[in-house]
Design a protein that fits this description.
single chain, alpha+beta, Topoisomerase I, domain 2, Topoisomerase I, domain 3, Topoisomerase I, domain 4, 3 domains, six-stranded antiparallel β-sheet, 14 helices, 8 strands, DNA topoisomerase type I (single strand cut, ATP-independent) activity
Length: 409
């Protein structure tokens, strides 16, 4: 008993779905909430109405440094009138300097890797999983279908032992600075609870020339992410300067890199330094007020990368082994189309037909499905009787069938 034939027959009975052979709807515990999220994102973009706003900013006339204020005006006349009342000098009311120390990114789980591969090379999630599986079978990478970002002290020990070899194979030389296990990466208890540790290289180091381009890309990115935990932290300093003018507060923030650390060996872009002049609290700064016009932007369209690395984990939808397949399935069944260049996901008319039919149905709710995943996990651990869960689902399905009958009467 499931909702697929119910949705198909009910919509066909009401003339909303063709009775042509093979023209049926599919309702899935994970796929339907996924389609709903994509439809909701599309509706938010379609319904977005851009609005013009105005903001004030101050420019230090001596240095050209800009100081911003977050408040927005919906009326240009009000913004201009406020700006006209400003004095020609602004008072430095606060200066705050902070030292920042950022550790390297966490180790990969499968979803993280799929998200990066989709964004960087437009790889479909199932393709990335297949590549990782090949590297696993060749004994170059650890077990792929893991949702854990931690390793145990045993894995840390062998990774440390083979660090030089990993550095040589991907040409990433640096002097290791973090040579003791850190809780951001090493946690025996979390690994025990997850059953599998993070996705990392094994002791077997390949000759990259024997790998395909796709295999080499995935292997190198996993190795790089792994060994960066041994690199020095990225250290930088920020300086925030606050100005006050006629009761309005403005701020400029400078940034000075002290030590790139791991960021110097990462493929991520490094933000440039922003140097500020030397200001003193109590100093009067000659400033010019500027009125800046802006327009609100619509929500960004969901991509496969975002679904895999952000949305699915947020709602607890699917598992590491099924998430890539879910995206592939909703495309094959005609609910979603994907832009091959950008990875953006667009719902079809068939998707809206299904979601509108199930709009008040908790079977299409991401939150409900996420809750079920928790129950299923507890069943697997023996904490919950599976019969109770199944009986509850049967009751809900029965009520949906009864509601459909009443609509047809």
């Amino acid at each position: 008993m499931n909702l697929s034939p119910l949705a198909t027959l009910d919509l066909q009975r009401h003339g909303q779905l063709s009775t042509q052979k093979g023209n049926s709807l599919s309702v899935g515990r994970v796929q339907t909430p996924t389609v709903r999220l994509i439809c909701e994102n599309d509706l938010a973009i379609r319904g977005f109405m851009p609005q013009t706003y105005w903001k004030l900013q101050l420019e230090d006339r001596a240095t050209g440094v800009l100081f911003s204020n977050k408040d927005k005006f919906s009326d240009s006349d009000e913004a201009l009138a406020t700006a006209k009342a400003f004095a020609e000098q602004s008072l430095v009311t606060a200066i705050e300097m902070k030292d920042h120390q950022r550790a390297a990114p966490p180790l990969f789980n499968l979803s993280d890797l799929q998200g990066v591969a989709a964004k960087r090379w437009q790889y479909e999630s199932t393709k990335t999983e297949q590549i990782v599986e090949k590297l696993y079978l060749k004994k170059y990478l650890s077990y792929p279908r893991t949702d854990c970002r931690f390793i145990t002290t045993d894995e840390f020990a062998y990774l440390k032992q083979y660090l030089n070899s990993y550095q040589e194979v991907i040409q990433c030389p640096f002097e290791p600075k973090q040579v003791q296990p850190r809780e951001a990466y090493v946690d025996d208890q979390k690994v025990a609870k997850a059953s599998h540790y993070a996705l990392i290289p094994t002791e077997n180091i390949p000759n990259l020339a024997t790998l395909s381009q796709e295999e080499r890309r995935i292997y190198e990115i996993v190795v790089r992410r792994t060994i960066l935990m041994f690199a020095a932290d990225c250290c930088y300093q920020t300086t925030s300067v606050q100005l006050e003018n006629k009761g309005w507060t403005f701020q400029a923030t400078g940034r000075h890199m002290i030590d790139l650390g791991w960021a110097g060996y990462s493929e991520q872009a490094v933000r440039k330094d922003v140097e500020l002049p030397q200001y003193q609290v109590g100093q009067l700064v000659p400033t010019t007020v500027q009125v800046i016009e802006g327009v609100t932007k619509p929500p960004k369209r969901l991509t496969e990368s975002q679904l895999i690395s952000q949305v699915f984990p947020k709602y607890g939808l699917g598992t590491q082994a099924t998430r890539g397949t879910i995206i592939q399935t909703i495309q094959k069944r005609g609910y979603v189309k994907k832009d091959r260049k950008t990875g953006q996901l667009f719902p079809t008319n068939k998707a809206y037909l299904l979601i509108n039919y199930l709009i008040d149905n908790e079977f299409s709710s991401p939150e409900t499905t996420g809750g079920w995943e928790v129950f299923l996990s507890q069943i697997g651990e023996g904490a919950i009787d599976p019969r109770e869960f199944v009986d509850a689902i049967k009751d809900k399905l029965s009520s949906q069938i009864q509601a459909a009958k009443e609509r047809g009467d």
